[in-house]
Design a protein that fits this description.
It is found in: Membrane. Keywords: Membrane, Transmembrane, Transmembrane helix. InterPro entries: MATE_euk, MATE_fam. The protein has 3 domains: 110 residues, no CATH class; 199 residues, no CATH class; 219 residues, no CATH class. With 602 residues, it is mostly helical. The protein is built from 25 helices and no strands. The protein is globular, with a radius of gyration of 25 Å.
C-alpha cells in the first residue's frame, strides 16, 4: 500500500522530506482520479458482482504502488527539479525499480483494455476485465452513453460537495468540544504545575472511559437512526431510539461512575504518585454528573444528524465554550474552589449544551421525530446494546493504542515525553477531521440504505473515502510545511523542537490513512458493521504494528519507532476497511438495515 511503500522510501532509501511530500500528494491524486474515472467510464462496478468489483478495484485502488510505477516519470521529473543532479546519484536503483513497475502497470492496462485475443505475459492480470459481451454499454447508443457519463459525473461531484458541507460543522463541533477540556487544563494549570498535571491526567482517564461511551456507544444511533429516518413508515421510531439510547448508555456509564469514585486505589495500583492519585480521584468524582451530560449531549447530536441536521452542535458549542472558560475562572479563582472548580464548570457546560440541543430540536428543527416518552423504548434493547458495545470497542481499540504509545514514550526520557505530548495534542485536534467525515458518512450511508438506494449508498461511501484522502493530503502538506516550527507553539526547548520535527513526517504520513479510517469506519457504522472495524483495529494495532513500534522504540529508533508502528497500523486499518466497503453487497446491506428496524420494533 502507499504508506508502507513511502515509509520504506523515507527511512531506508533516505528520500528527502520534499520528495516524500510530493510523491504522496501525486499518488493520492492519481488514486482518486482513477477511482472517479472508473465510476464514470464503466458501468458502476460498485454494484456489480464481487468478481467484477475485484477486477476493477484491486488493480486500480488496492495496488497503488503500480500507479506509482506507472507515473514514476512525472514524480521523478518533479523531484529532479528540487534536487538536480544529486537525484541521479541517490536513486539509480529507484529509477530501475519504478521503470519495472511502470511496465507492469502498462501490461495490466493492456490486459484490461486490449482485445480478448492478446497473448498473456508474466504481467497479465489473473482477474481480467469482463468481455465486451458482458459490458453494460453494448446496446446503448453513444449519445446515451455520453449523457449517462455526464449524469454520473454530476452525481459524484454533488455527493462530494454534500459530504464536504455536512462534515465541516461536525468537525467544528468536535473541535469546540475538545476546547472545553483544553481551556480547563490551561486555566487550572496556571494555579500550579501539580494542578496542571492532575487535570490533564484526569481528563485523559475520562477520555478512555466515559468519553469512549459517548463517542463509541452513540455509533449505534448512527446505524439505527439514520436508516430508520428514511426507511421507517413511523418517524417516531427515531424518538424511540433516542430514548433507548438514554437508557442503555446510562447503564453503560454506571460502572464508569463507580470506577471514578474509587479511582485513587486504582491509580496507586498502577504505580502513580500518591498525591496525583488522590487529587485525580477527587477531580473525577466531581466530574461524575458532568460525564452523563456529555453522553446525553452526544446522543442528541446523533439524533439530529440522523435527520440531516448537522449544524446545531456547532451553534451550541459556540455559546457554551466561552461560557465554560468564564465558569472555570470564576470557580477556580473567584469562588476559591481551586482544582475542583474545573470539573464542576465542565459538568455545567455539558448539561447546558445538552439542554440547548433539546430546545433547538423542540422549537427549531427535529421535533417531528419525537412522539413522547413511551415504554416501548425499554423493549428490544439487545440490538442497540450490541451495536453500542461494538462501537465502544471500535473506538476504544484505537484510543487505547495511542495511550499505550504515550505510556511507552514516558519510558524514553523527559525530552521524548515532552515531544510526545506536543504530537499527541496536535493529533487529538487533527483527529476531529476524519472523525467528523466519518460521522457525516455514517448518517448519509444509513439514510440511503433506509431509502433502498443501493447505488447512492455505494457512491457516498467511496466518495467519502476520496474526500477524506483529499483532506488528509491538505493536513499532510500543512504539517510538513510547519514541522520545524510547530513545537515552538508549546515549548521553546530546542531539543523538544528538534525531536518533534524529526517525528512529525511520520505523523503527517498517516493523515491520508487516518482519513480513510475515519470515512470507511463511518460507512461501516452506517451499515451496522461495527464488529468489522473493531476486528480490523485489534488485528492491525495489537497483532503486529504496535508491538513492532514498541520494539523499534527501544532498539535505536526512539520516539520515531513508536510512530512508525502507528503509521503502519493506520495504513493497514484504512486499506482493510476500504476493501470491505468496496466489496460490500449493497443489496444485502439494505435487507439487513430493514431487518434491524424490524428487530427493534417487534
Amino acid at each position: 500500500m502507499i504508506g508502507p511503500t513511502l515509509l520504506v522510501l523515507f527511512t531506508v532509501l533516505k528520500i528527502s522530506t520534499a520528495k516524500l511530500l510530493l510523491s504522496t500528494l501525486i499518488i493520492s491524486i492519481a488514486i482518486i482520479h482513477e477511482m472517479i474515472m472508473i465510476q464514470i467510464d464503466d458501468c458502476d462496478p460498485i454494484t456489480a458482482t464481487p468478481k467484477r468489483a475485484i477486477s476493477y478495484f484491486i488493480p486500480e485502488l488496492s495496488m497503488p504502488v503500480w500507479i506509482f510505477g506507472y507515473r514514476w516519470g512525472m514524480v521523478y521529473e518533479l523531484l529532479r527539479v528540487l534536487d538536480g543532479p544529486t537525484l541521479y546519484m541517490e536513486s539509480a536503483a529507484l529509477r530501475g525499480c519504478f521503470g519495472y513497475l511502470g511496465k507492469m502497470y502498462d501490461s495490466l492496462r493492456t490486459s484490461r483494455d486490449g482485445s480478448p485475443d492478446d497473448n498473456p505475459t508474466e504481467y497479465t492480470s489473473l482477474l481480467s476485465r469482463p468481455t465486451d459481451t458482458e459490458d453494460c454499454w453494448d446496446f446503448i447508443s453513444p449519445e446515451a452513453q455520453c449523457d449517462d457519463k455526464q449524469e454520473n459525473r454530476r452525481a459524484i461531484l454533488s455527493e462530494f460537495w454534500w459530504l464536504l458541507k455536512s462534515c465541516v460543522p461536525v468537525i467544528l463541533a468536535y473541535s469546540l468540544q475538545n476546547s472545553l477540556q483544553t481551556i480547563s487544563v490551561l486555566i487550572v494549570g496556571r494555579i500550579s504545575p501539580e494542578h496542571l498535571a492532575t487535570s490533564a491526567f484526569s481528563l485523559m482517564f475520562a477520555m478512555i472511559t466515559a468519553w469512549m461511551i459517548a463517542l463509541g456507544g452513540t455509533t449505534a444511533v448512527d446505524t439505527l437512526a439514520s436508516s430508520s429516518f428514511t426507511g421507517s413508515a413511523n418517524k417516531h421510531d427515531l424518538g424511540i431510539l433516542l430514548q433507548r439510547g438514554f437508557f442503555v448508555l446510562s447503564l453503560f456509564y454506571l460502572p464508569v461512575a463507580v470506577l471514578w469514585a474509587c479511582a485513587e486505589p486504582v491509580f496507586l495500583a498502577l504505580g502513580q504518585d500518591p498525591d496525583l492519585s488522590r487529587d485525580s480521584a477527587r477531580f473525577l468524582t466531581c466530574l461524575i454528573p458532568g460525564g452523563l451530560g456529555y453522553i446525553y449531549f452526544e446522543l442528541m447530536k446523533k439524533y439530529l444528524q440522523a435527520q440531516g441536521i448537522m449544524r446545531p452542535g456547532t451553534y451550541v458549542l459556540l455559546i457554551t465554550s466561552p461560557l465554560n472558560a468564564l465558569l472555570t475562572y470564576l470557580f477556580c479563582y473567584i469562588f476559591h474552589m481551586d482544582l475542583l472548580g474545573a470539573p464542576f464548570a465542565l459538568g455545567i457546560s455539558y448539561w447546558l449544551s445538552f439542554a440547548l440541543l433539546v430546545l433547538y430540536a423542540r422549537f427549531i428543527a427535529g421535533s417531528e421525530c419525537w412522539g413522547g416518552w413511551t415504554r416501548e423504548a425499554l423493549q428490544n434493547l439487545r440490538t442497540f446494546a450490541r451495536l453500542a458495545f461494538l462501537g465502544i470497542v471500535h473506538v476504544g481499540t484505537e484510543w487505547w493504542a495511542f495511550e499505550i504509545v504515550a505510556l511507552a514514550a514516558g519510558r524514553l526520557g523527559t525530552i521524548p515525553l515532552a515531544a510526545q505530548s506536543v504530537i499527541m495534542t496536535a493529533d487529538q485536534v487533527l483527529n476531529t477531521i476524519p472523525f467528523g467525515v466519518g460521522v457525516a458518512t455514517s448518517a448519509r450511508v444509513g439514510n440511503l440504505l433506509g431509502s433502498r438506494n443501493t447505488v447512492g449508498a455505494a457512491r457516498a461511501a467511496n466518495v467519502a473515502a476520496c474526500l477524506s484522502m483529499v483532506l488528509g493530503g491538505v493536513v499532510l502538506a500543512v504539517l510538513m510545511g510547519t514541522r520545524h516550527d510547530f513545537a515552538k507553539i508549546f515549548n521553546s526547548d530546542e531539543r523538544v523542537v528538534r525531536l518533534t520535527a524529526e517525528v512529525l513526517p511520520y505523523v503527517a504520513l498517516f493523515q491520508i490513512a487516518d482519513g480513510l479510517n475515519g470515512s470507511c469506519g463511518g460507512s461501516l457504522r452506517g451499515m451496522g458493521r461495527q464488529h468489522i472495524g473493531a476486528l480490523v483495529n485489534l488485528v492491525s494495532y495489537y497483532c503486529g504494528a504496535l508491538p513492532l513500534g514498541i520494539w523499534l522504540a527501544f532498539h535505536g529508533w526512539g520516539l520515531k519507532g513508536l510512530w512508525v508502528g502507528q503509521c503502519i497500523a493506520l495504513y493497514l486499518v484504512g486499506a482493510l476497511e476500504w476493501m470491505v466497503v468496496v466489496l460490500s453487497n449493497w443489496n444485502k446491506e439494505v435487507d439487513k438495515a430493514f431487518l434491524r428496524m424490524e428487530d427493534g420494533n417487534n
